[in-house]
Amino acid sequence: MSDAAKAGGSNEHGLVRLRNPLEGDAAAIAAGQALFAGKACAACHGASGGGGMCPPLVNDAWVYGDDDTTLYHLIREGSMAMRARGYARGSAEKVAGDMPPLGSALSEQETWQLIAWIRANHAHAAPRAPATR
Ligand code: HEC
Questions:
Q1: What is the pLDDT of residues 23-67, one digit of tens each?
Q2: Mutation choice for ligand 1 from 44, 64, 73, CB with most ligand atoms inside 8 A
Q3: What share of the chain is helix, strand, coil (3-state, %, to 5)?
Q4: Which of 2, 7, 45, 115 is the one with CA 20 to 30 A from 18?
Q5: For the chain, where are the alpha helices, taking DSSP H only?
Q6: CA of 128 relative to ligand 1 center, distance in Å
Q7: Cβ(106)–Cβ(114) under 8 Å?
Q8: Which pLDDT does position 128 carry in this prediction?
Q9: How far is the CA of 94 from the CAs of 43, 85, 115, in angstroms?
Q10: 22 lines ligand 1 (CB under 6 A)
């Protein structure tokens, strides 16, 4: 794990807290979009992440949480590893099965590029209502 991704401390599951060093980076978002299509993510989650057989990545329901630490480990290690650490499936998202571990096919940088794209795509697809004043 590169130092740039360490956010300090650990979470309640004993994982070092992470923050995406590529968040909001336009080149990383574009690379992440290409990886999403090329690394089989789209086969399960839909071409634009809107869901298919598996949960959508564009809504506000997240199976194990939406923080960078959780998404990084879920993508690389799969959902069985998350539950083995004590993560529980949130009830808001439909259960479609387990996410396979894909870390052997992705570098650390590619994983952050994917997460940068997921964030940007999420913000684009599901704009939040403006805060009431
Ligand atoms: C074989 C099908 C499959 C493939 C391939 C796959 N996923 Fe998943 N993914 C799932 C399933 C199923 C879940 C829900 C896991 C659970 O409920 O434990 C999931 C969950 C997720 C989540 C959390 C979604 C949420 O709403 O909380 C993210 C983010 C994610 N996958 C990203 C990816 C990325 C990025 C790739 C490609 C590198 C990928 N997935 C490839 C099946 C897949």
A1: 999 999 999 999 999 998 999 998 888 877 788 888 888 899 999
A2: 44
A3: 45, 5, 50
A4: 45
A5: 26-38, 41-45, 68-84, 108-125
A6: 23
A7: yes
A8: 45
A9: 17, 21, 21
A10: no
Least Cα distance to 29 among 126, 112, 133 occurs for 112
Assign domain 19-123 to its CATH architecture: Orthogonal Bundle (1.10)
What is the 8 CA–ligand 1 centroid distance (Å)?
26
pLDDT digits (tens, 9 = 90+) for 78-133: 999 999 999 998 866 777 789 999 999 999 999 999 999 999 988 765 444 454 44
Q: Tell me what pLDDT residue 55 has.
A: 84
Rounded Cα–Cα distance for residues 114 and 86 (Å): 24
Three-class SS state of 89: coil
Phi then psi dihedrals of residue 114, to 5 deg = -60, -45
Sign (positive or negative) of CA dihedral 91, 92, 97, 103: negative
